Amino acid sequence: MTDFRYALVESDETEIARQNALLRELELPIAMLVHSGGKSLHAIVRVDANSLPQYKERVNHIYDVCLKNGLEVDRQNKNPSRLSRLPGIMRQGNKQFIVDENIGKATYEEWEEWIEAVNDDLPDPRKLVRGLGEYA
Q1: What does the angle CA 9 – CA 28 – CA 56 come to, to the nearest 5 degrees?
Q2: CATH number of the domain that residue 64 is part of
Q3: I want to staple 4 with a disulfide (CB 3.0 to 4.6 A). Which of 49, 69, 100, 111 is the partner?
Q4: Range of 113's domain?
Q5: pLDDT at residue 27 above 90?
C-alpha cells in the first residue's frame, strides 16, 4: 500500500435514512456515498494521509466522531485496502447505487478544523451509561 487516500465509513447498526442524515450533518469529506444494496451506506471519505500511522490516526478520529454523534461505525473497515460496494452491480437481488458525490468538507484538514470548532466536549454517552450501573 503506497497511498492512503480514502477510508470506508459504514454502519449496519443504524437505519439508512439516519446514516444519510448523520453523514451529511457531520460534513465528512465524502468523495462518494454508495447504497450497499443492503442495510447500509458506504461513505468513501477523503483522508489523504502521508503514511500508515497518519492514516490510522485519521480513521480512528473519524470513527470516534461518528460514534460520539450517534453513528455506530463498523471498525473492521479501518484497514487502508478495504473495498466498498460497486455501484451498478446487483447484490442479493438489490442494486447498489451512488447516492451522492463530493459532499461535506473538501478535505480532511478542512473537516478536522471544522469539527474541532463545533465540538461540544460532551462525554461519551456509552461511558455515562456504564457508570450508572444498575440504574441504567
Answers
A1: 55
A2: 3.30.70.1790
A3: 49
A4: 4-135
A5: yes
